[in-house]
Every structure is written in C-alpha cells, then in structure tokens.
From TrEMBL, chain A:
<dbReference type="GO" id="GO:0003988">
    <property type="term" value="F:acetyl-CoA C-acyltransferase activity"/>
</dbReference>
<dbReference type="Pfam" id="PF00108">
    <property type="entry name" value="Thiolase_N"/>
</dbReference>
<dbReference type="InterPro" id="IPR020616">
    <property type="entry name" value="Thiolase_N"/>
</dbReference>
<dbReference type="InterPro" id="IPR055140">
    <property type="entry name" value="Thiolase_C_2"/>
</dbReference>
<protein>
    <submittedName>
        <fullName>Acetyl-CoA acetyltransferase</fullName>
    </submittedName>
</protein>
<dbReference type="InterPro" id="IPR016039">
    <property type="entry name" value="Thiolase-like"/>
</dbReference>
<dbReference type="InterPro" id="IPR002155">
    <property type="entry name" value="Thiolase"/>
</dbReference>
<feature type="domain" description="Thiolase N-terminal">
    <location>
        <begin position="21"/>
        <end position="227"/>
    </location>
</feature>
<dbReference type="Pfam" id="PF22691">
    <property type="entry name" value="Thiolase_C_1"/>
</dbReference>
Automatic annotation (TrEMBL), chain B:
<keyword id="KW-0012">Acyltransferase</keyword>
<dbReference type="Pfam" id="PF08541">
    <property type="entry name" value="ACP_syn_III_C"/>
</dbReference>
<dbReference type="InterPro" id="IPR016039">
    <property type="entry name" value="Thiolase-like"/>
</dbReference>
<keyword id="KW-0808">Transferase</keyword>
<dbReference type="Pfam" id="PF01796">
    <property type="entry name" value="OB_ChsH2_C"/>
</dbReference>
<feature type="domain" description="ChsH2 C-terminal OB-fold">
    <location>
        <begin position="407"/>
        <end position="461"/>
    </location>
</feature>
<dbReference type="InterPro" id="IPR002878">
    <property type="entry name" value="ChsH2_C"/>
</dbReference>
<protein>
    <submittedName>
        <fullName>3-hydroxy-3-methylglutaryl CoA synthase</fullName>
    </submittedName>
</protein>
<dbReference type="GO" id="GO:0016746">
    <property type="term" value="F:acyltransferase activity"/>
</dbReference>
Amino acid sequence: MASGIKDKVAILGMGCARFGERWDADADSLMVEAYLEALADAGIGAGEIEAAWLSVAFDALNIGPSGVPASIALRLGNVPVTKVENYCASGTEAFRGAVYAVASGAADIALAIGVEKLKDTGYGGLPVRTRGTMFDMVGVVGSAPGNFAQLASAYAARHGIDRDDLKRAMAHVSVKSHANGARNPKAHLRKVVDEETVLNAPMIAEPLGLFDCCGVSDGAACAIVTTPEIARALGKKDLVTVKALQLAVSNGWELQGRGWDGSYVHTTRIAAGRAYAEAEVTDPGRQISLMEVHDCFSITELVTMEDLGMCPEGGAVKDVLDGRFDADGANPCQIDGGLKCFGHPVGASGLRMIYENYLQLLGRAGERQRMDPPSLGLSHNLGGMPNQSVAAIAIVGLEGA
Amino acid sequence: MTEVGIVAFGAYVPRLRLKRAAVVAANSWYAPGLRAHGKGERAMANWDEDAVTMAVEAARDCLTGIDRGTVSSLLLASSTAPFADRQNAGIVKEALAMSDDIATADLSGSQRAGLSAMVQGLAVAAANGVTVLAIGSDKRKARPASEAELVQGDAAAAVLLGPGGGVAKLLASHSVSADFVDHFRAAGEAADYEWEARWVRDEGYAGLAPRAIHGVLAKAGIEADAVDAFILPAPRGVAQAMSRRCGIRPEAVRDDLGQSVGHSGVAHPLLMLVHALERATPGQRILVAGFGNGCEAVLFEVTDAIASLPRRRAVTGWLARRREEVNYLKLLAFSGHLELETGMRAEFDQKQPLTALWRQRRAVLGLVGGRDPRTGEVQFPKSDIPLGGNLDAVGTLEDHPMAELPARILSFTADNLTYSPDPPCWYGLIDFEGGGRMNVEFCDAEPEDVAVGREMRMMFRVKAFDRQRQFIRYFWKAAPAEREA
C-alpha cells in the first residue's frame, strides 16, 4: 500500500483573484492577480518556481491550448508547464500535479494555477461543448443544471422525500451560501437572499430554480507548494500541509451497469474513502473542521454531505435544515460563499476552495474567520455529470493535526 | 400468378393534433375563406419527427410479432423524405436493426408513390416468393394560411407483403399512368403549386380514377358492388362521386380520416387501408386507390388469417394516443416557416463525423447494445472491454437490440436552459428490462407522464439538426408508454 501524501508537502503561499464578472480583466490578468498574491505570501522570487501546472476547462474559449499561456502571462523561467483539464475538478488536478512533483523530489517549489474567463463566452451558464464523438451521437446535450437536477428526482424517490421538503432543504443551502458570500470581499455574489426568493425563482431545470445554481464567474487562484523542510527554511512557522489528495474517475459503471440509482455520486464516495484513509480520518463529522464542496447546484451540496459521510443516507435534508453546515454550525460548509456565491470559474475552483481552507487554518479569513481553531479543511470538486463524473478531494491541515 | 397478400399492417400518427379552429382563428384576418375547413384536427409531427422517423414507427407497428429477419426488402415511399441523396429507406432499415443483406429503395415523385410501393412490393413478393415491407410516410409541406395547411396531416403506414394469402390476399391491381399535373413541387421547393380544384376533380379524378377502378375490377373479374370497402383519398366528396360513377355501394366508401388526421399524402391510401384492415372480417373485399399523375388501384380479399394477427396499435391505437394542440405557432415553428430566436446554445456545432456514424450505426441508429454472454450483463453502448473490466472477455460482447425493450425512469429533469425547439427538454436515466441503461431525451412527454419508476417506450427521432451542413442526426428517445386500456 502506498504511503500516501500526508504531510509530505506544505503550502508555501496562495493567492486568489476577485471572482465575478470581470469585464476589466482577461485571463492573463486574472492569473497575474492570483499569482502575485501567492508569490508575496510565499515570500519567494519568481525564479524559484521549478515547475507549474495550469488548469483551464474551456480552453477553446479563452486562453487556448497548452501550458504556454501561463508561462507567458506569469513570465515563468522556461520551466515545465503542464495544462490539465478534468472537468470541474481541474483546479484540484493542477494542485495534485504540483504537490506530486514536490513529493517526488522532482521539484523543490512548484506552482499550481487555475483560471477561467467564462464571461467572454457570451453564455449565461456554462457554454455547450462537445463531449466526444460517441457522446454527441448518443448522449444528451443537457445543461449543467439539467444534468445535476436528476440527482434530486432520484434522491427524493430513494428516500421517499416530498419534493417540497427537498426544495426547502435545497433553498437553505443557497440562502446559507448567499449569507456567507456577502461577507467575502472576493466573492462574485454578495447579496443576502431569503428562502422565499429562492423558492419562487424561475425554474432552470426541474426542480432547480435560478438560486439553486451557482454563479458563472471569471477568476483565477494559485498555490505555491514545497516540502515542509524548505518551508521552514524559508521562515514559515504555522505550516499548512497536504493530508490527502484523491481523485476518482467514473469507469462507466454508473451509466452502463446496474446498481447505481442516480441518487448519489459514486466517485465522491470512492474519493472520500481513499482521502480519509490517506489523511487518517476515521470520524469525518468530528475531525473535519471546514468544508468547501462542489456546490455547483444546491442539490449537489446536499447529496455531497452524505457522500462525504457527514450524514447518514437520507439524513442530509434534516442536517441541512438544522443548520449543521451553516457558517456557525458544527461542520461549516462554503464559509466563503462556495461555488454558489464566491463563483465558479471552472479551472480555478479547486484552488479557490483550498485557498479558503488555507486562510481559515491560518486564521487569516477576516470577517468570516471561524473562531474555534480549525484543524482539517476538506475541499471537494465534482466534474462532469453525476452519471459520468470526476471527483477530487483535497484535505489540508496544520502540520501535526 | 403466385398468390400474394398482405401479411401484416401497421401505422403511425403523431401524438400532436392541432385544432383546425386555432389555425383558422390565426389566419382569418388574411384568408377568411379558410373557415370552410375549420372543423376537426390534423395530426402534426413534432419538431423531431419526419418522414423517416414516422416510417420507422409504422414499420415497427407492422412488424409486431414478426421476425424481422424474414423481411427481404424495404420500400419507403414519401414526397417529403428528409434526404434528397442519402437513401431514406436505408435509415429506416438501420433503425429497424435489420440485416445488411436486404434490398431497400426510396420511391417518390408522386402522391401515388405509397400505393406504387405496395404494387411493386406485391410484384416482387409474387415473382420471388419473398417478403417485402412497403411504407408510406409524409410530413406534409404547406405554406401558412393555405388550404393545404389545414386539410393535410402527417402520418405513416406500412404493409408487409408476402407469398400466400396473408390476412388479405391480392385479387388484382391496375395502374393508370399519365402526366396529369394537378399540382407540382419543384425539387427543393417548400410547398406545392396547385391548379384549380374543379378541374382537378372533374378532369383528374373523374378521368383517371374510374379507369383504374374499372381496370382492377375487370382483372379480378368481380362486380363493383362486391366491393365492401372503397378507399380513395381525395378532396371532400370525390370518393363518393367516384363510387357512384363506378357502381360501388355508397356504404363501402371509407372514412377518409380527414377530421382526425388530415390528408397524409403519400401515406394516406395505406393509412386508410390499414384503418380498414383493423376491423375487417374474412371475405371482405377492399379496393384501395391512390391518385397522383395517374391512379393506382389494388383489390384485396380479407382472409381468415386476419383473426389471428397479433394485436397492434394500427390507426385506431395511435389516434387514441393523442394530445390536443391549440398553438398554431408550433406548426409554423416545427415546419420551419417561423424562425424563432434560438439563443446561443443552439450554435453548438452538431457536425457528424460520418466515419464514426458508420462504425457505430448499429448502436446509434439501431439502438443495439452489448450483452456479456458469460454474465448476461447488458450495457449500452457496447465496448471492447466489458463493464467490470474482465480482460479475458475483450471483444466478446454480443449484439443486444434494445429498441423494443420497455424501460423505466430512474431519474429525470425538465431542462429550460439547454436548447430545444420545444422546451423544456425532458431527459433522464432509464433502465431497460433485462439490463442496460442510458441517459436519454424523452419525447412526447408531459409533466404528468414523468416520474421515477414510470414505464417508457423507445422511439426513433431526430436528435439534432446540423444547420451548417444540413445533416440530420437521428437517435432514440424515450416516450411515456401508453397505459393499455
């Protein structure tokens, strides 16, 4: 059995651009915005970066292919730059590349940078794109909300939950994220909304209304990673280290086999199991202080709480309505506003989530800082569709936690 | 001549039935004379239906209980086939997952083409002792505010022809061919150009139909009053007039389905024939005639075998599967007369790699999945390495046709964001009986039809149009299964 990544790599610095409708910025400037913050936080010079990973999901629509755009925008020193794309898990994928490079000893200091310039696509919501020749012949060209909305019908059927009760729990998820986002100066959506507004919003994809869907934003986020030894040598005291990094990718079972009932996300469960083992988490509800999960839609966050083992199956509705995942609850989730309100520039999202956990662990989250000392922060990305997905989990924590 | 006959029959009528009153109301400011045609309703193909998809449904209905491997030839007649140069019958053949080793052909060029397909099919069946499937299908083309728009309707019908008496044995057929141009449509044109109705009636029908009718009766050696069912799709009153002129009993003139379907063009003589056969009793004689640049007349005698034909939807069954539509704009939009704002999502490039369609044609057009012979597990689509990853089983999956299998909804949504010509776009995950599942679009679905666990039936439909290159992508969709009465 592999020994895992736990405590082998430390985060030296992180940065995050202000997310939103960044009419003022192109992808290059967004990358620079996140990069400069990370570089200053790390306290290193640009020349010390030995390898970089760039995550972008909609390359054809903004910066184009390959690692070249990041190398040019950040004026890297002709180091290896690899572009990664794994649907909405791309940001965590870039982080994984950088962390593994450091853990392997191939690089002392590595960079992960994610960016997306969705507001240049002209679409409300994510752009339509091919999913491959075969898929385009036999698959459904549905929207992202439509693909995730199916979780709701299957979840309600499996657990015998009334549609209105489910809608109310979903609304709570969104109301909470709006309240959290309102306190985050870098968030895209910063307006508090009430439950009634959420419930009465126009229908996007049954049963998801407008407020059940996350923002489509421009943004970039960046991480610089190194070994704990180098971090200490560079003068860092409170080290945030990587405890687990796991990626689970559908092998077709959900859509081609039997046994999956569409009410949960199989890959999240697999990735969570592996991540908990890697991070030596045995009781996630008690040990995980903070969560940033892939709340692309309210139903996704709700179902993810069960997939991460935070609640028993069928128990998320009650836990959500009880406020367990609110900013002041036992297991705060999306304390920065989440994809819902911080925004979802696809390639940047995974890094944005790690950024929030990093800030919270170091006590640098400002107005939204959790008062009880956090120890482990979990971030979760879900790419693709629930029936053909990529789930990524990153657990970070203070060294020794 | 070897005895031949109709072995089986089937039909298809689209679910949407547009109230004519709604069309008249919308157009009365412009063409008040249309009020004369304001009664009843017409069958209206949905945006994702065309002559090919309707032909597939009629063929499936016709082939109920019949081994498709016994069909050696497929003829598709249509004046509105979607492709001018890509054999439309070939698409139907793929959708029916038939063997490549059969003959297929398109017939067109005249409203008579449906009956011509049947006459040709009967001749081939008689000469070669083989079974021929003849289909007539039309998604009618008419300009807004025209009389044609009101009196026409979309439908398809199919007959399986073979040696022996079948359920209705052929007594005789007679063809009259003449370049009588009552209307025409140049290649590529959107609608017909029509000549004066009275001339068409008095010179066209009255001149040509009796010749065909007398011809077939003479060949069969029977008297006109021995005809029990007389079918001649024609403008109002013409069939009655022709029956009088030819000596056919007035009660033999069949309901022309004008109030429920409308005139379905090439398909209509076959559609009325199927309607007649549905309740026919042994010994009845059915004379079906089709007019168009001449006239085709065919005479059958119903046999005892009619009683043992497995139940099918036929015209009555499909007519009962009905949803009233009062929105005339849908007809205009679905027929391309009204260009609606589609939004950016419709710009998604739907270019079809033809290489891939060829490789995957059985999966895409035939809905053929894979079955692991060792485990019995079914998957769609088929893959080299079966699900479960057993590398000893690479390339061993067997073909598993799924189009006729019932399925149940596992999850669903109604998507208002994705582009659909008829929003919202319903889709979801379905599980097939015996295994296999897919995430698929639903068609002909309403909120009351869709719930987890609800039974669905697969239908061959247009998946998407490639507007840039004018290609049509076909695939299967799931429709709510009718609850049997």
